[in-house]
Amino acid sequence: MRIASWNVNSVRTRLEQVLTWLEQEQPEVLCLQETKVSDDLFPAEAFAALGYSSSISGQKAYNGVAILSRLPLEDVQIGFEALLPGDADALRLSEQKRVISALVDGVRVLNLYVPNGSALTSDKYAYKLEWLACLQRYLAVQEQQCDPLCMLGDFNIGPEARDLPDPDRQSGGIMASEPERQALAAALGDRLQDAFRLFEPERGHWSWWDYRSGAWDRDQGWRIDHIYLCEQLLACATGCVIHKRTRANLQPSDHAPVLVNLAWPPEDDDEGDDEDV
Q1: Domain span holding position 131
Q2: Are β-strands 237-242 and 107-113 bridged in parallel, bridged antiparallel, or unpaired?
Q3: What is the DSSP letter of 173?
Q4: CA dist., res. 130 & res. 238, Å (int)
Q5: What CA–CA distance (Å, rounded) separates 216 from 205?
Q6: Is the pLDDT of residue 276 over 70?
Q7: Cα-atom radius of gyration of the chain, to the nearest Å?
């Protein structure tokens, strides 16, 4: 099963690019962030024509997440409040459409668009830390459900120096501050691991290039789009790649898709084994 994540920075603006990529790569699942469209205007019919059903949570002009799948989407859960119904902060934080999950062939696919935070002195930074703390509570409840978990999306955090083009200058700033990194690490706990780093330990691999300052031309990007897997799925992972070429499209998103390949469902190694006598 191939599962991908892509912050498309407006699904209607990039629709033809997304459709082309789907036709070329044909993942079973594609999770979108920053769809920037209300649910009634989401282009579900265009994806259905390629065999993808859609589960969506959007809002006009801002945020928005969606899961596209060629496999059945079951038990769709929207917002933090889906698992934290008595948590007032979860309800408030879910007003921005940033969280959606579904069961796909027995895997819980959790699609996130983590707040950017704007600047360390901004109220949006405090909101980001509050959001990540809520994610930690959400994942603690999710773990009790015992579903294999694939959590992916735009995390707006470079977890380590190797995820930044200029660590000496950028570490400690927005998207690379210690409180953000620690909050993400606390949410991940011991359960979830970065799939990309399983296969590529070196720096110089980016998923986002700022439109400003000629970042793409200078290849000065950040790796802020991640796929995290539980131990069971990590054992099934056979590759994880960033599809950098999409950033060279005409009028591209500033993000590139990230895709993980899973040998799922796993084969039953015990099938046909004889019991010891």
Answers
A1: 73-262
A2: unpaired
A3: S
A4: 34
A5: 13
A6: no
A7: 18
